[in-house]
């Protein structure tokens, strides 16, 4: 799945009340996961938290892991490792595109 096809999932447009309804988590739990640096909502000018569909999915995943007894610091380590892997893959893709462009004189991105 390309980033372009999933970009709507990254838009921070959902209020904390709606996230609460979608996930079944309490507002306190959602804020706790933010404090533990597991999710990163955007803030409006007035300080209101806004979440994305990806944040909602992440919160549901976190809640499942917590139910299984996984500690938040362990979840954070998993998330960091996954982010590092994504960055490596993006770098690899960029390098391959650059090599193809150099070899075939392609300009397409």
Automatic annotation (TrEMBL):
GO terms for molecular function: DNA binding; DNA-binding transcription factor activity. It comes from Fictibacillus enclensis. Keywords: DNA-binding, Repressor, Transcription, Transcription regulation. InterPro entries: DNA-bd_dom_put_sf, MerR-type_HTH_dom, MerR_fam. It comes from the Bacteria. Residues 13-81 form the HTH merR-type domain. This is MerR family transcriptional regulator. Gene3D superfamilies: 1.10.1660.10. PROSITE patterns: HTH_MERR_2. SUPFAM superfamilies: Putative DNA-binding domain (SSF46955).
């Amino acid at each position: 799945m390309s980033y372009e096809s999933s970009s709507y999932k990254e838009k921070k447009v959902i209020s904390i009340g709606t996230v609460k309804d979608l996930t079944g988590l309490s507002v306190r739990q959602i804020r706790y996961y933010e404090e533990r640096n597991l999710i990163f909502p955007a803030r409006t000018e007035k300080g209101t938290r806004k979440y994305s569909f990806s944040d909602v999915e992440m919160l549901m995943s976190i809640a499942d892991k917590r139910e299984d007894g996984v500690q938040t610091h362990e979840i954070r380590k998993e998330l960091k490792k996954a982010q590092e892997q994504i960055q490596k893959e993006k770098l690899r893709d960029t390098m391959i595109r650059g090599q193809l462009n150099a070899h075939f004189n392609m300009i397409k991105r």
